[in-house]
Specification:
- The chain is mainly α.
- The protein contains four helices and no strands.
- It has helices at 5-17, 27-36, 42-53, 55-87.
- The protein is flat, with a radius of gyration of 27 Å.
- Bound molecules: zinc ion.
C-alpha cells in the first residue's frame, strides 16, 4: 500500500494535534478504567502505603533502579562500540593498512593482530 505525501502529512498533522490526553469516552471505557485503576478500597491503600514504607520495598526499588541504570549503561556502551566499529576499519599503526575486520587486536581495538 502506498501513501501519498498529502495523505501522510494529513495524518501527521492529526497526530500532532492530538493533546495526548483525550480518550474516547463511553460507558465500557469508563467501566474498564475504574476496574483497572480506580475503586481501590481503603484497606488496599493502607496496605500499599505500608508496603512502600517498608525497607523491603525500598531495597526492591533500589535494586530495580540499579538494574535499569546498568541496562542503560550497557546499551550506551554497546552503541559506542558500534559507532567505533563503523569508523575504524583499518589498523591505526603507521605503515600498516591491515583491515581490522576479523583481525582486530584483543589488546587494542584500533590496531590489528599483527601490530599489538
Ligand atoms: Zn596493523
Amino acid at each position: 500500500m502506498t501513501t501519498s505525501k498529502k495523505e501522510f502529512n494529513a495524518s501527521l498533522k492529526k497526530a500532532k494535534d492530538w493533546d495526548g490526553i483525550s480518550r474516547p469516552s463511553n460507558d465500557a471505557y469508563t467501566e474498564s478504567w475504574n476496574r483497572i485503576f480506580g475503586g481501590k478500597t481503603e484497606k488496599e491503600e493502607e496496605r500499599l502505603k505500608k508496603l512502600k514504607a517498608s525497607p523491603v520495598y525500598k531495597e526492591y526499588r533500589d535494586r530495580q533502579n540499579a538494574m535499569a541504570r546498568d541496562r542503560y549503561k550497557a546499551r550506551k556502551e554497546e552503541k559506542k562500540t558500534e559507532d567505533h566499529g563503523k569508523g575504524v576499519t583499518i589498523c591505526k599503526a603507521k605503515d600498516c593498512n591491515n583491515s581490522l575486520y576479523g583481525w582486530t587486536s584483543s589488546k587494542n581495538k584500533e590496531y590489528c593482530v599483527d601490530c599489538v
